[in-house]
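Throughout our pipeline, every protein is held as a single compact record rather than as scattered files. Nothing more is needed to write down the fold, since each code stands for a local backbone conformation. For reference, a complete record is included directly beneath this paragraph.
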Amino acid sequence: MIEFTNVTKTYPNGTKALKNIDLRINDGEFVFIVGASGAGKTTLSKLLLREEKITSGKLVIDGFNLGKMPQYKVSRLRRTMGIVFQDFRLLPNMTAFENIAFAMHVVGEPNKVIKTRVEKFLQLVNLEDKANAYPHEMSGGEQQRIALARAIINNPKMIIADEPTGNIDPYMSIEMMDLLVKINKLGKTVIVITHEKSIVDYYQKRVVTISDGQITSDRTGGMFDEN
């Protein structure tokens, strides 16, 4: 479970990016976080990853109190998460197989387990034929699916996707979102941060709208609120 209680984030230059946020996301939910550029979506995602600390209030994720968490525990928190970035962040000198496997090497999995599991996840994202391809040899949609496979390979409890369809065409966007819905149906919490109205309206999931650092609406099965 994720729970923001009266959370405010103020940057050193005085910018108040989030103001008194109250938000609860239960295990297994699929939630869109939407809003215009500069609304506070990116700051919210950085707080979830503990890339930034809250200024006041309380943020708890699966029992971790992020406001009081010492730095050495941050890596333990992040192991419960799978992160999909808009710019993919694939390692250019590694193949698709190696990029996915890298996440497992980091946590010390044996090579035999890595090989079997990576092959399974390449099948999941329909890219078995790209196992030996390097990022520059793949389309944007293919790179994004490899990034998703890497994010979920270690069986995280939640997936945080930051503008996951921002750099791919509409057809690939639907394919990417369908994969996230499929993952959600396996019991994973999925949080998608986006500004794409068509995607949000199509999937009819819970929609939390942020405007000027505040939550202006929270609708289950709702549409993109442009106000």
Notes: The chain has a mean pLDDT of 90. The radius of gyration is 18 Å.
